[in-house]
From TrEMBL:
Organism: Streptomyces humidus
Region (Disordered) residue spans: 127-149
UniProt cross-references to PANTHER family, sorted A to Z: BLL5188 PROTEIN, TIS1421-TRANSPOSASE PROTEIN A
Residue span, Insertion element IS402-like domain: 22-100
Lineage: Bacteria, Bacillati, Actinomycetota, Actinomycetes, Kitasatosporales
Full protein name: Insertion element IS402-like domain-containing protein
Residue ranges with Pro residues bias: 139-149
């Protein structure tokens, strides 16, 4: 009986993963990911979750907006914490700027990149030359309490 339940669960997990990370997306992302670290021989610990499964967890959070702790491990294939850690590692390794550049190159080659109508959001970019600053804002903190000594 438990074998049947396991096969149903495995079928469901691979189905969801295929939906979250289609083959064409995985073919673009996989070469950009850093190699997995070597496993220790003496105390190897748990098996590492495959990168595609972790990417499915990341995309699940992006698509649904759930908190990392609320990712359903049964449906995605890994916990939200595992997906978050892998996202952190990939961000530190510079995967996302390389993926962005690769996708832009692919769009340019196919002549599908049209920048005639575009919007640029610079609200998260630091003003390197100082920018304009307004007058200092008055403090909204309460006045210090007088000493009782």
């Amino acid at each position: 009986m438990w074998v049947l339940r396991l096969s149903i669960l495995v079928g469901r997990v691979s189905e969801v993963r295929a939906d979250l990370v289609p083959d064409d997306l995985w073919e673009r992302v996989a070469p950009l990911l850093p190699p997995a670290p070597e496993r220790r021989h003496r105390h190897p610990g748990r098996l590492r979750v495959p990168d595609r499964t972790a990417l499915a967890g990341v995309l699940f959070v992006l698509r649904t907006g759930v908190a990392w702790r609320d990712v359903p491990a049964e449906a995605v294939g890994c916990s939200g914490v595992t997906a978050w850690r892998r996202l952190r590692d990939w961000t530190e390794a510079g995967v996302w700027p390389r993926l962005h550049a690769a996708l832009l190159t692919e769009l340019r080659r196919a002549e599908l990149l049209d920048l005639d109508d575009c919007a640029v959001d610079g609200s998260h970019v630091r003003a390197l030359k100082g920018g304009t600053t307004s007058a200092p804002h008055p403090s909204t903190a309460p006045a210090p309490v007088p000493s009782t000594t």
